[in-house]
Amino acid sequence: MEKRVIDAIIFDLDGVIVSTDEYHYKAWKRLADEEGIPFDREMNHRLRGVSRMACVNIILEKMPDIYTLAEKENMAERKNRYYIESLGNLNEQALLPGVQETLPLLKKEGYQIAIGSSSKNAGMILEKLGLDHTFHKVVDGNDITFSKPNPEVFLKAADALGVRPERCIVVEDSTAGIDAARCAGMFAVGTAEAQIYEKTQIGISSFEQIAGVCRRLNG
Ligand code: B16
Ligand code: MG
């Protein structure tokens, strides 16, 4: 493995910290079924990490001229309503395995930790999970102009932490997020389906492995 000095770890939110990726899927599925638009889990993979409106455009890519911009915006707003409804009972039980134990450990080892999420709901989700004071910085969909695969969210997180991009690790479950991390010059760690993505530099199968990756990189 290449050697780097790592000072900070930037985590994606949906699908890395918390299982809200499944809630996103169910909200899009409900909308698509109501509209009679074909939608399955395979298409859902392409929605990971990208903004709400970009998701609408992916879902409608085989019928680009059927819906007006206003109708598309309405679909995005409806999906968000379904999504927020489904988050009603969200609590720490939705945290992905290993998160609760590993985050304090990384902080204890001296790493800066941040969230770099495309979601505009990130603040509310972190609050429900009791993680609103855990990360040193949170950069989300409200802070950026371009969503992943654009590197903006991760570059802003590194800047907020005061850490150079090459000293950051990004942990991501989406290919768009891995592309964004590489474009930012950061070290890209992939979980879930991003474990086997060609641009992922290390794939991990459990969250606890992040501490080991940092130690190995720091030599
Ligand atoms: P919202 P992440 C992303 O979050 C999700 O992966 C993606 O599926 C979603 O469309 C995007 O946030 C926007 O979310 O509609 O809540 O603003 O994975 O970057 O944490
Ligand atoms: Mg994600």
What molecules are bound to this protein? 1,6-di-O-phosphono-beta-D-glucopyranose, magnesium ion
Shape: globular
What top-tier CATH class of the largest domain fits best? Alpha Beta
* CATH architecture type of the largest domain: 3-Layer(aba) Sandwich
CATH topology descriptor of the largest domain: Rossmann fold
Strand-and-helix sequence, N→C?
EHHHHHEHEHEHEEH
The largest pleated sheet is described as: 6 strands, parallel
Distance between the termini: 10 Å
Content of β-strand:
5-15%
State the helicity in percent bands: 40-55%
Number of helices: 9
Description of the molecule:
The protein has two domains: 8-19 and 92-218, Rossmann fold; 21-89, Putative phosphatase, domain 2 (DNA polymerase, domain 1, Orthogonal Bundle). The chain is built from nine helices and six strands. The chain has helices at residues 20-35, 41-45, 52-59, 69-86, 99-108, 122-128, 152-161, 175-183, 209-217, and strands at residues 8-11, 112-116, 137-139, 168-172, 187-190, 202-203. Helix 8 links the parallel strand 4 and strand 5 (187-190). The structure holds 1,6-di-O-phosphono-beta-D-glucopyranose and magnesium ion (MG).
